[in-house]
């Protein structure tokens, strides 16, 4: 299982994020410390290991719980094998299940008592009612007969396609997004080195609009605005972007430079230029060194770049996947209609009636 991160309120676990939004180096360190701690103990089953991450990037062992733990409740909805099932498999000597997350991101929010008596129950039930209107949210109420301040009364798990999404849903649950108009988070970005690339790159934007995918479009030059490019690429994932379409002509360094600064998939669009008709752009994009992958399309074919981005997003979005399938079916239907007309009319009449300039 991947490391989790959590926040505490008055020394009580309040929010758990999975996977932890910490550098990979720290994840490996936390995992190593946890494994060493468990190996020093005897027993079978699930062990919860709690560590503190210090400001100087040290992982300090706080406690080990030889049982399913509150911090692992999100596994019920977010993982292929929950901590409870895994615990039973382990102590019964059965094959262990897959602990991987089946949702890209999850947040577990502990319902802590806000007040005593009836007032506390009313506040908790209001929170639950809001949760029932949030996509990807599951409520677990423990049915404890008494409520006290800071007592764990239940928990709410929210799963979604990204940590940005589940955090936005948590803000909605806690009514932290009531001020000002709601902003739609862009899932894709269309960037280009110059406004002269826009006549080509607009085709990618049109495809994203066709599939109702929120996106941002801007100019980011690898050569003229390197600091802007650096900041843009480094912040892209944190801002909730899931894929970047980058158009560039000539030396075409933009797609590769962006790909070297982010773990998001980058699709490069070679832009046609007068000097070498876009072949220099294409070769620059496809000749990336090992370890820095950049997808690409035909010279000037930003439409296909948009479609490729849509397919990437659809791989974990059922509704979008249905729209992609519908799009594919429409393409097939249009070709079949043309084939039928050509066969019925013959080539000469088809040219005259269907392909007039």
TrEMBL record:
Tell me which InterPro entries the record gives: ATP-grasp (IPR011761), ATP-grasp_carboxylate-amine (IPR003135), PurE_ClassI (IPR033747), PurE_dom (IPR000031), PurK_C (IPR040686), Rudment_hybrid_motif (IPR011054)
The EC code for this enzyme is: 4.1.1.21
Q: Which residues form the ATP-grasp domain?
A: 19-92
Q: Which Gene3D superfamilies match?
A: 3.40.50.1970, ATP-grasp fold, B domain (3.30.470.20)
Q: Which GO terms describe its cellular component?
A: chloroplast
- SUPFAM superfamilies recorded: Glutathione synthetase ATP-binding domain-like, N5-CAIR mutase (phosphoribosylaminoimidazole carboxylase, PurE), Rudiment single hybrid motif
Which NCBIfam families does the protein's record reference?
purE (TIGR01162)
Question: Which family, according to the similarity comment?
Answer: In the C-terminal section; belongs to the AIR carboxylase family. Class I subfamily.
Task: Name the chain's protein.
Answer: phosphoribosylaminoimidazole carboxylase
Organism in which the protein naturally occurs: Aegilops tauschii subsp. strangulata
């Amino acid at each position: 299982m991947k490391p989790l991160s959590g926040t505490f309120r008055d020394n009580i676990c309040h929010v758990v994020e999975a996977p932890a939004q910490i550098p990979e180096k720290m994840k490996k360190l936390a995992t190593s410390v946890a494994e060493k701690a468990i190996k020093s103990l005897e027993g079978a089953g699930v062990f919860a290991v709690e560590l503190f991450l210090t400001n100087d990037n040290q992982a300090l062992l706080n406690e080990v719980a030889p049982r399913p733990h509150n911090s692992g409740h999100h596994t019920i909805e977010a993982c292929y094998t929950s901590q409870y099932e895994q615990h039973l498999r382990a102590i019964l000597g059965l094959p262990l299940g897959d602990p991987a997350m089946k949702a890209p991101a999850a947040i577990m929010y502990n319902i802590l008592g806000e007040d005593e008596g009836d007032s506390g129950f009313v506040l908790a039930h209001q929170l639950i009612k809001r949760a029932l209107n949030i996509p990807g949210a599951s409520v677990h109420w423990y049915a404890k007969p008494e409520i006290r301040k800071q007592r764990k009364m239940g928990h709410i798990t929210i799963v979604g396609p990204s940590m940005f999404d589940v955090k936005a849903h948590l803000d909605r649950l806690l009514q932290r997004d009531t001020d000002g108009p709601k902003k739609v988070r862009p899932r894709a970005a269309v960037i280009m080195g110059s406004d002269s690339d826009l006549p080509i790159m607009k085709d990618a934007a049109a495809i994203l609009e066709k599939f109702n995918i929120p996106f941002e479009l801007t100019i980011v030059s690898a050569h003229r605005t390197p600091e802007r490019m650096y900041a843009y690429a480094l912040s892209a994932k944190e801002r909730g972007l899931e894929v970047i379409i980058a158009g560039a002509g000539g030396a075409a360094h933009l797609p590769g430079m962006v790909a070297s600064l982010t773990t998001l998939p980058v699709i490069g669009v070679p832009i046609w230029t007068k000097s070498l008709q876009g072949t220099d752009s294409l070769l620059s994009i496809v000749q990336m060194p090992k370890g820095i992958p950049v997808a690409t399309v035909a010279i000037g074919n930003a439409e296909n770049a948009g479609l490729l981005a849509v397919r990437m997003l659809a791989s974990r979005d059922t509704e979008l996947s249905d729209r992609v399938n519908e799009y594919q079916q429409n393409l097939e239907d249009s070709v079949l209609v043309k084939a039928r007309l050509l066969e019925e009319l013959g080539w000469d009449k088809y040219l005259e009636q269907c392909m007039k300039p």
